[in-house]
Design a protein that fits this description.
There is one protein chain. The protein has about 300 residues and is of the alpha/beta class. Helix content is about 35%, strand content about 15%. It has a domain of about 190 residues: Decaprenyl diphosphate synthase-like (Undecaprenyl pyrophosphate synthetase, 3-Layer(aba) Sandwich). The strands form two sheets. A six-stranded parallel beta sheet has the order 5-6-4-3-7-8, with helices on both faces.
């Protein structure tokens, strides 16, 4: 799923559509600020984010109080392979369809007011999958980043990678860094892409870095707090997760954002990721809004005698 490619020739702008079509989505046309960024010829003009395309059904997000909308949503995008196999297709086809789902969910986050979304794209444990599937996912991740970064940028989305460098394809890392650089000034939504990521690995890496700083005399053991640990994680400025969503019918967190999700509300969807969309995201947000988040506190609510 790609946005429109824009060719600039003198004063002529010729948009060439690319398929949001298979999900029935349409791309908003490129305007002059967007062309300015591509051509680099109109000075330091800072383009305003454009609205993502609406859902094909025309549905709008529920009217939630902004204080009840989760600020940070984490998503385990599970069920791609099983969805494809159930339709007589190879597992890789599920990943292809999942690309459109991710873009639709990002659009839904922007519409309802979510400020940060973390997507579990490839875990440190996923290297155990077949070499063919691993090669496909790495190559596909590279392609998705290249295809979607301009749309994400135009929507005001900041892309940030979290994960380990070892074993990660250099070509994928290159695309991640380019997407980060392109979108670094965007403020509408932060997209944390977890590729070659594991929650335990993140904590272990943080502990190793802390131990090195203690040994070097840069850090006092007595001064280590939870805040200290947070500064050594992959994304020190990441907000705690408010709502943790997993699709595909499984009910586990699978080593995703273990530190950051300590007080997250959990939402498990029976739908496989390719069938999930922004409407299901909004259902999860409505469920979140109804919950009483106490963070370890308690309020006395004595029931009257019957």
């Amino acid at each position: 799923m790609r946005g429109r490619v824009v060719f600039v020739r003198l004063n002529e702008i010729r948009p060439v559509p690319n398929p949001f079509a298979r999900r029935g989505l349409r791309t908003w046309p490129a305007d002059s600020p967007r062309v300015a960024r591509l051509s680099g010829r109109l000075g330091d003009m800072t383009p305003n984010p454009v609205c993502p395309p609406p859902h094909p059904s025309g549905v709008h997000p529920p009217a939630l109080d902004s204080a009840l909308v989760p600020s940070h949503v984490a998503v385990v995008m599970d069920g791609n392979g099983r969805w494809a196999n159930a339709r007589g297709l190879p597992r890789t086809e599920g990943h292809r369809v999942g690309e459109a789902t991710l873009m639709d969910v990002i659009a839904g986050c922007l519409e309802i007011g979510v400020k940060e979304i973390s997507a579990y794209a490839f875990s440190t444990e996923n290297w155990k999958r077949s070499p063919a599937e691993v090669r496909f996912i790495m190559g596909f991740s590279r392609q998705v980043l290249r295809n979607q970064r301009d749309d994400l940028d135009s929507w005001g989305v900041r892309v940030r990678w979290i994960g380990r460098k070892p074993k990660l394809w250099k070509s994928v890392l290159k695309e991640l860094r380019e997407a980060e650089e392109l979108t670094k000034d965007n403020t509408k939504l932060t997209l944390n892409l977890a590729i070659n990521y594991g929650g335990r690995a993140e904590i272990a890496d943080a502990m190793r870095a802390i131990a090195e700083d203690v040994a070097a005399g840069r850090l006092s053991p007595g001064g280590i707090t939870e805040r200290t640990v947070g500064r050594y994680l992959y994304a020190p400025h990441m907000n705690d997760v408010d709502l943790f969503i997993r699709t595909g019918g499984e009910q586990r967190t699978s080593n995703f954002l273990m530190w950051e999700s300590a007080y997250a509300e959990l939402f498990f969807s029976e739908l496989p990721w390719p069938e999930f969309d922004r409407r299901e995201l909004w259902k999860a947000c409505e469920s979140y809004a109804r919950r009483d988040r106490r963070f370890g506190g308690a309020v006395e609510k004595v029931s009257p005698p019957s």
